[in-house]
Amino acid sequence: MSKSSKIALLKELLESAEASVRSAKQILSEVIGEDGGKELSKAIEKAAVSKGKVEGNIIEGVFDGQNMIGPDKKVYSVPANYASKSKLIPGDILKLTITDDGSFIYKQIGPIERKKIIGILTYDDGQYRVIAQAKSYKVLLASVTYFKAEIGDRVTIIVPEMEESDWAAIENVLPKTDEDDEFSEKDLAI
User: Fold this and answer.
1) Can you say how many angstroms the Cα of residue 79 is from the centroid of all Cα atoms in its chain?
2) CA distance 16 to 31
3) Stretch 19-43: mean pLDDT, rounded?
4) pLDDT at residue 31 above 70?
5) Which long-range contacts link 34-37 to residues 24+ away (Cβ below 8 Å)?
């Protein structure tokens, strides 16, 4: 095994270990009630009830990272490819039109304020995640495959600007450079 292959393997092992530690910390904070994501979940439900509408076959609701929560707190499945290509993030307002033949047509009508950050794509416990600014964000598999991202890639993600979120949308995969052989302490710091 060449020196560069050993270094690449070592980096992957370190990333996996760091992702596991972050996941453990996140689970611990959820168990003891320090999870900001719960506040966002409550805010999403509240926004769905207050901003959502049901008018015939049109329903307005709030995206939670995977689904739309309607004003009746009913969960509507949002196609992952639509969420990925539209770069939906928790808090975005969606309109669902249910056609006469039963088709669901989604449209983003109220994007939440956003910010972009850079992180490293990881895979832990059956879920793709991006580690950025000392936090682990879940991302949709459809986003990973759409951008042809690989574990260890540096990616730009979109997150809610004002709220804590467990979910992010992938904006893009950054091109690989010679500097990618070195970990960014800033991106991965706990």
Assistant:
1) 14
2) 22
3) 54
4) no
5) 36/163, 36/164, 36/165, 37/164, 37/165, 37/166
* pLDDT of 190: 43
- The token pair at 152 is 């260890």
Token couple for 138: 């879940």
Are 127 and 146 contained in the same domain?
yes
Give the Cα separation of 116 and 157 in Å (integer). 6
Under 8 Å between Cβ of 136 and 167: no
Which has the closest alpha carbon to 62: 88, 101, 34?
A: 88
Q: What is the pTM of this model?
A: 0.67
Instruction: Let me know the angle formed at the C-alpha of 143 by 39 and 128, rounded to the nearest 5 degrees.
Output: 65
Q: Which two tokens stand for residue 186?
A: 């800033």
Q: Model confidence over 126-171: pLDDT tens digits? A: 999 999 998 999 999 999 999 999 999 999 999 999 888 999 999 9
Domain that holds residue 141: 3-35+114-188
Inter-CA distances, 158 with 108, 115, 170, Å: 16, 6, 6
Please check whether residues 101 and 158 belong to one and the same domain. no
Q: What letter does residue 2 receive in the DSSP assignment?
A: -
Q: Rounded to a whole number, what is the distance in angstroms from the first to the last CA of the chain?
A: 31
At 63 the three-state DSSP class reads strand
**Count of structural domains within the chain:** 2
Residue 57: pLDDT over 90: no
